[in-house]
Every structure is written in C-alpha cells, then in structure tokens.
Amino acid sequence: MRLLIVEDEALLLADLQKQFTAKGFACDTASDGEEALYLGREYDYDLAIVDLGLPKLDGMTVIQRWRDEDRNFPVLILTARGMWQDKVAGLEAGGDDYVTKPFQFEEILARANALIRRSAGFASPKLRFNGLQIDTGAKRAEVEGQPLDLTAFEYNALEYLALRSGQVVSKTELTEHLYDQDFDRDSNVIEVFIARLRKKIDPDNRLKPIATLRGRGYRFELPALQDT
User: Fold this and answer.
1) Helix crossing, 189-201 with 171-178: angle to 10°?
2) Which of 46, 106, 111, 169 has its CA 20 to 30 A from that of 121?
3) Which of 119, 148, 171 corresponds to the end of one domain?
4) Same domain, yes or no, for 97 and 162?
5) Residues 112 and 43 in one domain
6) What would the pLDDT profile of 27-61 be if each residue is shown by its tens digit?
7) Tens of pLDDT, residues 157-182
8) Residue 156 belongs to what domain range?
9) For residue 187, what pLDDT is reported?
10) Same domain for 153 and 85
C-alpha cells in the first residue's frame, strides 16, 4: 500500500516513514502543505496521513482542495489540537478519521489499516474469500486453514489485489502502490511475484485466484464470503 505522510516535524516524519516502511508500506513524504497538495494531485495514494498545522498551506486547506478536485483517497488527520471543534472541522473538510498527538504508532497503524480496508468496502480486518483468508491486521494469509509462507512483497501484492476484487489492476498501478518512486518499472519483477504468488496460493490450480488479462494487468477473482 502506498502512503503519503505529511508532517512538518522532521523527527516525527522520519519516524513515521521508518515504521510504516518496516510494516511493508511504500511511503512518500511532504513537510509543508504546498508539497502535499501537489503530491496528492499527482499520485493515487491508498491513504494520506496529514498534520493540520503545516507551513505554507495548512492541512485543512490541503484536504479541502483535494476533495474539491475529487481526490478521494482516505485521509487520516494528525492534530495537536485538543478542541473538539477543530476535530469536527477537520472531518468536515474531508478527513476520514483523526489521531491526536501524542500517539502510539500501533494506534495510527490500526487506524490506517482500517481506513484502507473500509475504502475498499471491507468491514472486518479478515478478508474471507472462497478457500482463502487474508488477515490485514496481522499481515498474513492462509488457504483452507493452512498458513502461506509469503514474502512481504508477495503479501502486499495479494492484499492490494484482494481489496480490489473484480477490478483490473495494471502492472504499472501495482508497481506504484507497492514500491518507492525510484523502483525500476521496466523490470519484470511484478510478473515474477504474481507467478510465485499463484504457485503458493494455488499449487493444484483449483482456486484460480488471480487472472492475467493480456495487455491490461491482473484481476483477483475469488468471491468474497463477507458483506462488502
């Protein structure tokens, strides 16, 4: 999953980037509102984490402009403001949830995962499909009750495709949401990961979870076993 983290406190920004990266997220960062506004216009993020007290352009204005321009990725607000009116204003500007500073990383991670999951239409952290279960909180998957031994990138590719079940996902889109911007997008690494993922999930070729659409990309095809 690809995040945009917007925070003007350099140490906090670096810490959040480090911890989210360690959890398998691809992270872009901005330290002021103008840069954040630009990045949110240019890239299709899975989530933006935005501090309200930013230089050049405050976070609330950034969120409002994104929404005015139909940038609909979920936004988690970071605020040091304790007044409930400020929290309400942030949500009404287009934010989806908020965390008040200081916070524990575990809380912001849980809220980030929940927002990403809900934006795809899933209420439970456990995504259940025919023969396959993906635990987005624990970042693991199992087939018919047997855990899968997946690398971090394999898991991330599986989760991204599953959250877009039935949708066509191009190789470019998958690459952009799994890797940093300087990743070599001309490589065949996505094809290798998908091939390996298929073998691990479906060695007997019974489930057929991921279809390849020549010239278009991939589509996750297992039916969901929960309300979406």
Assistant:
1) 90
2) 106
3) 119
4) no
5) yes
6) 999 999 999 999 999 999 999 999 999 999 999 99
7) 999 999 999 999 999 899 888 876 65
8) 126-220
9) 56
10) no
The token duo for 23 is: 């959890």
- Which pLDDT value is given to residue 72? 93
Retrieve residue 167's tokens.
């949708």
3-state secondary structure the chain: CEEEEECCCHHHHHHHHHHHHHCCCEEEEECCHHHHHHHHHHCCCCEEEEECCCCCCCHHHHHHHHHHCCCCCCEEEEECCCCHHHHHHHHHCCCCEEEECCCCHHHHHHHHHHHHHHHCCCCCCEEEECCEEEECCCCEEEECCEECCCCHHHHHHHHHHHHCCCCEECHHHHHHHHCCCCCCCCCCHHHHHHHHHHHHHCCCCCCCCEEEECCCEEEECCCECCCC
Q: Which two tokens stand for residue 224?
A: 């969901």
